[in-house]
Design goal:
single chain, 207 residues, Rossmann fold, seven-stranded mixed beta sheet, 6 helices, 40% helix, 21% strand, binds glycinamide ribonucleotide
Amino acid sequence: MTDKARIAVMVSGTGTNLQALIDAQNSGLIEKGEIVLVISNREGAYALERAHKAGIEAFTISRKASGGQEGFEEACCELIDSRNIDLIVLAGFLMILSKDFVTRYDHKIINIHPSLIPSFCGDGFYGLKPHIAALERGVKVTGATVHYVNEIADGGEIIAQKAVNVEEGDTPEILQRRVMEQAEWLILPVAVAKICRKIVKERHGKL
Ligand code: GAR
């Protein structure tokens, strides 16, 4: 029996958070987890290239080609269940998953969000949008949050947060990059490592 938790990462775009997880796996930080599956809802997402380079099985499942949200989620479930996934990480995954999907994997899905929840989060706040809103509101501190995913968008139990300063003259792009460098790429791998250790410990406890 493997002593590692099997991780699936769901992505939509560039995949810098996926890369942070791959690097953390290679450096030994995620010593009790292994990324075995990457699912992108966008064809041609650069995250897929990162998965291929790391030798991780990767698939594109588009909502449109699957006939809508239900078909998309069914196809994801088939893949996830057939690979015996223990933990699903939404790393720059920009679709909202249905209540059925998140309930099926209760406390098995985590997400990285680019703000300090409960600020600048929920439906419509993704990618650059939380940073645009933070600058418009004039906050002096923002950051990133890792949380469990439940049926409320960005509403699940908070696992980790890290604050990042907003600087004079920031554009949304500059702020996004700082939040990634100083928060997202650090707290997501640490949270995944911690959850994987817990999964493996509980598995051994049940033997
Ligand atoms: C990241 O900033 C991530 O936190 C955000 O999208 C970006 C994806 O970057 N996610 C959300 O907004 C989810 N609501 P990446 O593809 O380079 O990891």
